Amino acid sequence: MRIIVKLDVKPPYVVKPVHFEGLRKVGSPQKLAKKYYEDGADELFYIDIVASLYKREILYDEIEDTANQLFIPFAVGGGVKSIEDFSKLFHLGADKVVINTYAVQENPDIINKAAEIFGNQAVVINIEAKRWENWWECYTDCGRIQSGKDVLDWVKEVEERGAGEILLQSVDHDGRQRGFDIELSKKVVEAVDIPVVVSSGAGSMKDVLDVALEAKPSGIAIASLLHYNKSTISDIKEHLKENGVKVSK
Amino acid sequence: MTTTVGLINYGIAGNIHSIKKAIEKAGGKVQIVEKESDFKRVDKIVIPGVGSFKDAMEELHKDGLVDSIKKEISAKPTLGICLGMQILSTLGYEYGKTKGLEIIEAEVKPIIVDAKVPHMGFNSLDVKHHNSLLYGLEDEQFYFMHSYEMVNYTDIIALTNYSGHTFVSAIQKENLYGVQFHPEKSREAGIQLFQNFINL
After folding, report:
1. Residue B34, domain CATH
2. How far is A42 from chain B (nearest CA, A)?
3. Three-state SS string across B33-83, please?
4. pLDDT by residue (tens digit) across A176-208?
5. Tell me, what's the ipTM?
6. CATH second-level architecture of A2-242?
7. What residues in A contact B55, CB-CB < 8 Å?
8. DSSP H/E element including B21
9. CB-based contact A122 B51, cutoff 8 Å
10. What's the alpha-carbon Rg for chain B, to the nearest Å?
11. Which among B12, B182, B191 is the nearest to A117, CB-wise?
12. Does residue A116 belong to the interface with chain B, where contact is any CB pair within 8 Å?
């Protein structure tokens, strides 16, 4: 099980939204990245959460400065619209590029093209899932815009198109620290053969363990639980290990 | 004198940033290699690789680097990382069949395993032949991120097990080394590997 830290960034700050809204500043991406690297994070996800919404490019200097601190995988997303954007981010030190809005709303073919050029391991699809009565809908632009796409259909489609990983976020659970959407996590993990990183909702070590045991994702992305010093990465890993979940050293 | 490591930069897919940083942290100097004449300044060579086998070989041909890499590898200690190891093979099966650099007798094929692919995350090594590159790192974990694996029977120095499936995670043929994992993404253990490489 990979323990991943997710930095939601509204430059120049890491922020933590609740339900993707009501932003609170929690620190600088550079400092937090370094801290979480030293604390034992397996990976870091850096998402510029307003780039797509504000229709601007992702801010490159912030990313390069953050990447410079790390000797672990670094995934970057937010406002990615072209193969040139992918290329630029890799050159700045990203190992994986995360894409949502452009692929969902405008042109899913970018997934095929990026996978062919950069390898599928480098293409991560961000899902912002919103629960309805008996289905989940893909949202974009930081949980604001509806797409009409069913999450379970879309994850299969992106896998088919060559995506290498899913970052699964829940618009309903994000930032609330009341546990993951386990039913959604389980359904997505079972729907595809590519790794799924589940996110949104960790409020305690028990929440992390529950989703690990019940949904069996490949990774768990954590934000608030760590940002507010409620737990540390080593505590979380230890807790998972004691309960039979394999984690890195 | 400080060892100068030539880091081959090819194509739009290359992420050489983090490898450069890791080599420098390990005490080496980095010379980016983009054309044949750049090789004159380097003592050792690192072949990085992000992308597909097919794309990587096309880019190397386009940059006119294939023959010079082959020549240089025979004279200077070399480390291939991930796809940079895979393209040392005879043949790759990613997006059709592509001829590799044909230095290691091997084929690169999709991972077939009863688990999620790509194989992503930290994993351990089972060192089969003790060697200078992995010296002192036998019990460490390294970061893997791949959907293809090198199938080789003759140059294996380490194997790794992913969910019951064993694959080649490091090779050596004289002064040529290859690792399937990413030392530049593997914390202090990775920096130590670069130090071992610099000290070869």
Report:
1. 3.40.50.880
2. 8
3. ECCHHHHHHCCEEEECCCCCHHHHHHHHHHCCCHHHHHHHHHHCCEEEECH
4. 889 999 999 999 999 999 999 999 999 999 999
5. 0.90
6. Alpha-Beta Barrel (3.20)
7. 116-117
8. helix B17-25
9. yes
10. 15
11. B12
12. yes
